[in-house]
Amino acid sequence: MEDYPRNQLELERWFATEEACRDYLFGLRWPDGFRCPRCGRSRVWPVRKLLFQCVSCGYQASVTAGTIFQDTRKPLRLWFRMAWWLTGQKTGASALGLQQSLGLGSYTTAWTWLHKLRRAMVRPGRDRLSGKLEVDETYVTCSSGTVRCQGKTRKALVVIAVEERGKGIGRIRMKAIDNASAKTLREFITETIQPGSVIHTDGCDGYAWLAGSGYYHDATVMDGRQAELAVRLLPRVHLVAALLKRWLLGTHQGAVSYRYLDYYLDEFTFRFNRRGSRHRGKLFYRLLQQAVAIDPVPHKEITR
Predict the structure, then answer these.
(1) Its pTM surpasses 0.85
(2) Which of 36, 122, 123, 294 has its CA 20 to 30 A from that of 285?
């Protein structure tokens, strides 16, 4: 059963102690009761205050081991407040905003924590998109990295897939890519979209392989004089592209390195796909649920 605070007052009341935070993470990580990560058995002995020891194999585990919270030196209460703040920012979150909101002494700490949580915004084993979709590429501005240059502006190529929901938009996926070759686009589509789906694209050669590959391909070929019609022929994907660019420029002032672009795309996707959630707490719940389902992300791995 999904259980989460509905407002700031409930957040402060629910998670006033470290023990309350650990209990909440325990329920998210093992909703059906503890299972030993090594042998899968359920019987454990408590060891001191933070550890569980498996009766069968003797393996010792904690609620934070093997998650993004592993080896943290900061209180879980602070992590919870950061997750609440992050999911409550409708226009996205910046490291400077987080530092100022939580009174963190270091910008680097705020930046690192945000990147840890951005990695938790992709649910392991998430379902692929399905039904009728639009797929296209767009260029976004990056502050640095090995990307295509147009004049003095550095641009990165991003491929976007958008589900059609009548006249509206369903779920989305996006990824930074090096080029629009058939090999690159095939990797993205097969990883992202369920076979049997109908995929509407422009006439780019990189999508020609779709015919007879398990997908239904609806291609609209446009010459140079018709390029301006793309917005009308693929309206959903172009709307998402416009919102993405506005978000990157508005929230991050375009200061997004190509090296980390995919993680910013993951954050945008996480927010967009949950735009219909009525409660801020639901996003908070989902983020923590996924945070205990992914492997630890050491600082040196983020910055290398």
Answers:
(1) yes
(2) 36
Contact partners, residue 103, CB within 8 Å, separation at least 6: none
Q: How many CB atoms lie within 10 A of CB 247?
A: 18
Domain that holds residue 199: 132-259
Assigned domain for 211 exists: yes
Task: For residue 164, tell me if it sits in a domain.
Answer: yes
Read off the CATH number of the domain in which 173 is found: 3.30.420
Cβ partners under 8 Å of residue 223, min gap 6: none
Of 284, 262, 279, nearest to 173 by C-alpha is 262
Q: Which residue has the tokens 């015919």?
A: 211
How far CA 53 is from CA of 18, 33, 42, 43, 66, in Å, comes to 20, 14, 10, 8, 15
Residue 83 counted as domain residue? no
Q: Looking at 59-112, which runs of residues are DSSP E strands?
A: 60-62
Distance CA 118, CA 287 (A): 9
Token pair 């389902």: residue:
293
Please say whether the beta carbons of 52 and 29 come within 8 A. no
